[in-house]
Amino acid sequence: MTEIWFTERQEEHSGLTVRVRDVLFSGKSKYQEIQILDTYSLGKVLVLDNTYQTTERDEAYYHEALAHIPLFTHPNPRHVLVVGGGDGGTVREVLKHKSVESVDLVEIDEVVVRECKKHMPTLSKGFSDERVSVIFEDGAKYVKETNKKYDVVIVDSPDPVGPAVVLFEKEFYENIKGILNDGGLMVEQTESPLFSKDFVINIRKTFSEVFPIVRQYLTVVYTYPGATWSFTMGSLKHDPLKVDEEELNKRFKGMETKIYYPGIHKAFFALPRYIKEEG
Ligand code: SAM
Q1: pLDDT tens digits, residue range 202-261?
Q2: Tell me, what's the pLDDT at 277?
Q3: Residue to mutate (ligand 1; options 33, 50, 157; most atoms within 8 A of CB)
Q4: Ligand 1 atom, smallest distance to 112 CA
Q5: This prediction's pTM
Q6: CA 87 to ligand 1 centroid distance, Å
Q7: 48 CA → ligand 1 middle, Å
Q8: What is the pLDDT at residue 1?
Q9: Regions of the chain where pLDDT drops below 50
C-alpha cells in the first residue's frame, strides 16, 4: 500500500512531516486550499495553504492559552467576539465561562467551518451552542462596521499572509478598541518568537500605540514553527499580571481544561530575554 506523508515546509531547509492515514477533505475555497487529514501521530489535522492550523494532539495548548488568559483577565466577560477561528477550538473554550452570554465568530471562509463541523467535532462542537452566532465576513470589515460592543475580542488568525494580512494592521486594532466595552480587552495570536522575533517585537510596539496596557505571553505548540508560540494582549484597564488568584480559583471551579489553571495564569507571561519588554 502506498504511504501518504504530508510536509509543511517551515523554513527554507526544514519542515514537519506526518504520515497520513486518510484524506478526509481536500479542496480549494475562494480564499485558500483546505485539507483535513487523519494522521497516525497527530489525530485529525486542519491544513490551510499547506500550513498546519490545528491538530487534535496539540490544539489544547493553543486554544486554552488563547481563550482563558483574556477571559480570566476580564472580571466579567459577557460578550465575546472571535475573529477567524473557523475550526471552533477557541469558541469551545470560550463557552466554558459561565459569565459568557454571547459569542460571535467572524470567519471569512464558510468552507473551513462547514468541513470542520463535519470532520473535527471535538473542536467544532461549540457551534451548536445557542450562545454562538457565526458570521461569514472579513474580520477587519466587521470590526470597522459593526455597532455591537464586546468585553473581549479574540483574534484566532492564520499567519499574516493573504486575507489575514489586514488582521495585523494598526487600523484593525484601533477599530477593535472602538468596539470594546469599558474595561474591555483583546488578544491575538502573534507568531513564533523563534522564527519571527522582529515580528513579535514590532507587533508589541503597534499594540502599544493603541492600548494603555500591552502584555505578551507564550505557549507551546508542537506543530507550529519553532514550537513556542506568542500571543499579544491589548487592554483598556485590566492587567493580566494583576489578577487575583483566589478570585480566579472561584471562577475556575468545575471547569474542565488540559493546560490552564489559575496557578499558572501569570507564568504564561514569562518571556525569554530576546523578546522580553525591556530587551
Ligand atoms: N490556530 C490557527 C493558527 O494559529 O494557525 C488559526 C486557525 S483558524 C482556522 C484561522 C482562520 O482565520 C481560517 O479559517 C481563515 O479562513 C480565517 N481568516 C483568515 N483571514 C481572515 C479575515 N480577514 N477575517 C476573518 N477570518 C479570517
Answers
A1: 999 999 999 999 999 999 999 999 999 999 999 999 999 999 999 999 999 999 999 999
A2: 65
A3: 157
A4: 14
A5: 0.98
A6: 9
A7: 9
A8: 77
A9: 279
CATH of 4-55, one of 3.40.50.12580, 2.30.140.10, 3.40.50.300, 3.90.1150.10: 2.30.140.10
156: annotated active-site residue? yes
What is the reported pLDDT for 276? 87
Q: Whose CA is nearest to atom 4 of ligand 1?
A: 158
| Given the residues 104, 151, 156, 159, the one annotated as active site | 156
Domain ranges of the chain: 4-55, 59-276
- If DSSP states are collapsed to H, E and C, what string results for the chain? CCCEEEEEEEECCEEEEEEEEEEEEEEECCCCEEEEEEECCCEEEEEECCEEEEECCCHHHHHHHHHHHHHHHCCCCCEEEEEECCCCHHHHHHCCCCCCCEEEEEECCHHHHHHHHHHCHHHHHHHHCCCEEEEECCHHHHHHHCCCCEEEEEEECCCCCHHHHHHHCHHHHHHHHHCEEEEEEEEEECCCCCCCHHHHHHHHHHHHCCCCEEEEEEEECCCCCCCEEEEEEEECCCCHHHCCHHHHHHHHCCCCCCCCCHHHCHHHHCCCCCCCCCC
Q: How far is the CA of 251 from the centre of ligand 1 (A)?
A: 29
Distance 124 CA to ligand 1 centre (A): 14
Query: Which residues are near ligand 1 (CB < 6 Å)?
Result: 31, 53-54, 62, 83-87, 106-109, 112, 138-140, 156-158, 163-164, 166-167, 189
What's 59-276's CATH class? alpha beta
